[in-house]
Give the backbone structure.
Amino acid sequence: MTTYTSNWLSPSNIALVKYWGKKPEQLPMNPSLSFSLKQARTRTSVSLQPLESKKFSFLFEGKESPFATRIAKYLDALSIELPWINDFSVLIESANTFPHSTGIASSASAFGALALCLTDLNRQLTGANPEEEKFFQAASRFARLGSGSASRSVYGGFAWWGKSSAMPESTDCYAIPVSKYIHESYFQLCDAVLLVDTKTKKVSSSAGHELMNNHVYKAARLTQVNQTIEQALQLMKTPDERMAFIDLVEQEALSLHALMMTSSPSFLLLKPGSLEIIEQIRDFRRQTGLPVGFTIDAGPNIHLLYWKEDQAQVHAFVKSELLYYTENGEWLDDQVGDGPIKE
Ligand code: PMV
């Protein structure tokens, strides 16, 4: 029996407009918009070998990993659609290009890379040869079933996931690339990740999404986020509205945290260091007039957003004012990236 392999390198992404809350089958309650990162990526290799006693193995950075159970369940669920999964021993090896346990969501890049391998293997095994756009839509849908935000990690530049009247071709099923709608100046956006606390999250993202089901502000959130994503898209069409863009993105990130704080049970994920960094960033913006701001995922780490042309000033600011509030002075510097690579 033949052996089949596929290797992909897929980026992590950072959402400017956040997916928060889901409908059944991992469909999003609201549309989200993100950019893929250049440095933070996962490299995955999937090999299908003749079926032996060992049905499945998953090694992360060369070692057994607790993530294996989640991957095994994911493959089991996908085997309904990709029945060949049951005909082979599935051996997966995966590694991140960024330091492990930094509090950076690696599930997006992990499921992005794995879904690309599976879509590629499906092509090899079934002889189906979808055009490129359909190939990535299928990969995005498979990625979504592993982790919602991973649906956006199969593209470079900017990606949009979730049905919205502001983006006619958008759908809840998979993410779409939207770089063509965005002004070229936005491809110079950088993301300095300030690692305030790298310990395990207090709330898993699936538990977090669940909090939206009966949230007292659910209706207001859905109205607000649909307006926010439409405004973000408008602002990103020109190079001139960076300050308004930064204000909007900050408001969106704080809305996510406001929702967590006011949910039942309530979660307070920001740390004193996170708040200090937020204040410092806003002071720096007031003093310099530079379009510098932040976004935050469901954790305490602050993503400092800035433009490449301001890098020297921003790096000096990070080193002199912000690293003090991070864990062991740790930070990662990243930027908009080109997307996945087949290796
Ligand atoms: O993909 P999940 O289920 O880990 O959810 C990600 C949620 C946020 O990171 C907070 C927002 C987003 O859109 O990435």
